[in-house]
Amino acid sequence: MDPCPFVRLTVANLALKIPVASKSARSLVHPSSSPCFCKIKLKNFPLQIVVVPYIPPDNQFPENQLQTPAATFHLNKADIDKLGAKSIFSTKPCLKIAIYTGRGGSTCGVNSGRLLGKVSLPLDLAGTESRACVFHNGWILVGKEANKHSFTQLHLNVKTEPDPRFVFQFDGEPECSPQVFQIRGNIQQPVFTCKFSFRNTGDRNQRSRSLQSEPCSSRSWLRSLGSVRERSGKERKGWSITVHDLSGSPVAAASMVTPFVASPGSDRVSRSNPGSWLILRPGDGTWKPWGRLEAWRERGSSDGLGYRFELIPNKSAAAVVLAESTLSSGKGGKFVIDLGAGSATPVACSPRSSREFGYRGFVMSARVEGEGKCSKPSVEVSVQHVSCTEDAAGFVALAAAIDLSMDACRLFSQSLRKELSGPQDFLG
């Protein structure tokens, strides 16, 4: 498998020096009482807002300090070409940073904070797909003033590093048992097939007994479920999806091990009682758990899909959380595992604990659509985390599980499409 070129642009080691003013001076900032933040913008990418620590004017930034990323941008080949395109109306792409004092956010639609100044740093991205490049490392004056002893200074490190990735695309919704293609430029090559099925939750261990045992026919599952007759109308259970390579061998699976159940007195899956999936990989002739995905429906204005993914160690060590965030139920979004500080996805584990299991930096992302929309997930996986077909297939199965969770967490007052309704919906 050949990867696609990607570039990781990192803004790190932020710090701010501000002229000290007497308490009677109203025009200058008192950083001890006024927190500072900055808005970092790269054309065609979402704005990122980060807090900037303050350094007293007489102090120096510690040399050889460990890089502390504050903002990260992921650029594919098309992004780089678009940013570097020449025209009579454009110059080199610039990273733009606006520094504010006060607390971030907005009140009644008006941005809070007072602008201190702006910094614009030109970027020459040519060739960055194959080599690392440092664009700036050190102090830079904020604004146009030239006296570094009297005006605000910003410390930052801006660099790019090659970050090649494998890119996969489902050619249909996961519940429709689609093919999965690897994408490289304009080339699409089939690499996996998926099989969606319903599993009797009373026999959760069946799929762990042998890699050779495939699910029974839908007719036999119907007989099995018909004998149980326990449909509650407020639970979704028994979904599973198996990923096969082109030879037909199963190489990964996602199995719903905890039903998605409506909390008492409501029609939603709550955070306190989430549904969950096991992501399984083959080993020693059996399925072995690799990770656990929990999902629920958030309350309040966000009304999104909350999720938490944790890695299950081979031994008795505690599970390690790799990702925990929320996706918009209406618009969808990206499920991301990025263990670099300053990434868009909050991570509950320490970087050290994740490195112990071989995971660091960008790991994967999966784009899923919102409710009621045709979702054909696209998946990006860092090359450094794929050493065999089973590695890639595990991430594909995880992407399928997060996509299916969007439906599993749909309000129970809403019906599901027939592929997800299950044979239990036809029981008397």
Mean pLDDT, all residues: 81
Number of helices: 5
Structural class designation: mainly beta
Largest sheet: 12 strands, antiparallel
Number of strands: 24
InterPro entries: DUF1005
Protein name: Formin-like protein 18
Organism: Hibiscus trionum (Flower of an hour)
Report on this structure:
With 428 residues, this protein is mainly β. It has 2 domains: 7-162, Immunoglobulin-like (Sandwich), CATH 2.60.40.150; 165-426. Helices cover 11% and strands 40% of the residues. The chain contains 5 helices and 24 strands. The protein has helices spanning 77-84, 218-228, 351-355, 389-408, 418-421; strands at 6-17, 36-42, 48-52, 69-76, 94-101, 106-107, 110-111, 114-122, 133-141, 153-162, 165-170, 179-184, 187-198, 235-236, 239-245, 250-258, 260-261, 275-283, 286-297, 305-311, 320-327, 333-338, 362-368, 378-382. The strands form 5 sheets. The protein has a 12-stranded antiparallel sheet, with helices on one face. The chain has a 4-stranded antiparallel sheet with strand order 4-1-10-9. A 4-stranded antiparallel sheet has the order 3-2-5-8, with no helix packed on it. It is globular. The two termini are 49 Å apart. The relative contact order is 0.13. Mean pLDDT is 81; it is low at 22-28, 106-110, 201-232, 341-349 and 424-428.
